[in-house]
Protein 1
Amino acid sequence: MSGSRPRAIIVGIGTECSSFAPHRTAMADFGVRVGDRVLDRFPAVQAGRFGEVDFVPGPVSRALPGGPVLRAVYDALLHDVLAAVRHGAPWDGVLLDIHGAMLVDGLDDAEADLAEQVRDAAGGADVVLAAAMDLHGQVSRDFAQLVDLPTCYRTAPHVDESDTRDRAAGLLARALTSGVSPARAWCRIPVALPGEKTSTRVEPAASLYRSLANPPDGVWEAALWVGYAWADEPRTSAAVVVVGEDLGAIQRECARLAEEFVAARDAFTFCGPTGSLSWALDEAAAATDGTFFVSDTGDNPTAGGSGDVATTLDTLLADRRVTDGAGDAIWTALVDPDGVRAAQRVGVGGDFDERVGGCFGWPARVGLRGVVRRLVSDGSGDVALIAVGRLQVLLTTRRTPFHTVADYARIGVDVTRTKLVINKIGYLEPELDAVSSGWAMALTEGPVDQRIDHLHFERLQHPLHPFDAIDDSWRAEVEVFGFAQ
């Protein structure tokens, strides 16, 4: 150790990127945290639960999921991370606060590149690296070799983000203060599934993730990554990493998790009622009370959708039950800065007649004729609500998810009094789920099309379910890195 008290720096660059999104993640898409705003993400660290280690906040950058990160943007963010790491080097430990499914133009395996460069800047081979990640991240062999203590969320929808970051901090503190160098067992799982088929609310993911909470003796941590199915990269797949002092125990636990995941591959099904958009609208029309939600899944911006896919709008405008029905309906949200500016020019109550969609290049634009119902401008960007009968179409200047009741309240919409909400989202986030009287997932087109076989992959490592047959006799090939003492 570099002194009587171990020192660890927290840094990271995190986002989730679809290879199929025309959007490119630019510097303006990232928010950079420094100082106490980084420690705010680690409640147990902030509360001094790991007081035997000095955790020092460095820059942590996060962006809303979308298209691949521009290389110049990644290089600039990495420059700032490395500058902060070098300034305090040598470090005893580094905690990477990342997502794990970042794509960077012209660079394979961005997280492995980040880990390698941070390790070198921090002091080299003797530095202990931990990582707190999303369970939809990717864990390649290279990344598993580089990072001593990786872990990830155990819930989807994610309700344990802070717990996971604190768990990663606790693992790092344990390694730095115990004098033990745990080994880690890694296995690539030849399965790629969309998140909406692997929700931990339902089986088989529910049982698999519950089993992580009580590891066998000799195991410090077991982490299971579903992976990110919309990345056209060789590393795309599920993966498992088990960390501990007992080589046999970590290998057995790693193999168990991998083999149970593969054995359950056909049991992973959508976590809610699912079908075509027309079917979902039929389900909504049959509902009598409360608010019915339809997930417009193919262009979910929090999964990497570009937000500019307008094809759903065609179907909504053609359905008289939506435009002329007994209750209000709203579709959220189509990013279209030109459309918002057109609405601002005519003002509230003015006639709107524009073609919308495709602002990033998705090859579809749709004619929208209606009346400007509302204009809102605040720190989250400008928005325009265009009314077509009972349907309100929300246009935004920025890619914007709508995951909470407050998100809708900001634009003057009470979702509890809205009959039909069509939302660019996947599974419903907890707050919307709590106020819904019914829900259907529509399989729509877009950069995160749930029907991944509809997308054109070129670089995947095969065999990979569901693209290839996996023999029922498949057995895990576990690799071990590091040395237990």
Note: The chain has two domains: 7-269+475-481, 274-449.
Protein 2
Amino acid sequence: MDNLILQIQQDNEHAFKQLYQAYYIRVVTFITGIIKKHDIAEDLAQDVFVNLWINRKTLDATRSLQNYIFVSSRNAAINYLKKEMVFSSEPLEAQADVSTGNMVEDTFFAKEIALLIEMVVSEMPEQRQRIYRMNREQGLSNEEIADRLGISKRSVENQVSLALKEIREAIAAYLIFWLCMLS
């Protein structure tokens, strides 16, 4: 990926096209998950990549390009939602969850965490991803998963444990990022 950043910094349009093709659908899906408007998400995703190309000379080859893309995507979605809130005819109180008193930001934060988890899970090795989804999304026990996949219960336990560790690490990094941003 570092090589790809260097190629893009050197105005290599083919390298940029590879990056675009690799991430565009994921960025649209990520933004749609936040703003719930697919057509707007497509426009925002286009903006993310246009801005990446415009700022290609300032990309840091030591940083994760994937993180850059998803932070830019999150920021684009947040900015869109902020504009929507400003121009919304709904009073702020109507945007709050009356039962708990939580504001839209709390809901947004929860959605961000859910999307982060989905991103982490989708990047896991296929077997770990399958086991995690069977356990957490389908509610199957470790024994049931082991039977269905023809592997040992211990293997299932190990894969679930590794999946949860990856998720915890990603959430911790995300929270540290936000704490640094707030400082």
Note: The chain has two domains: 1-88, 102-183.
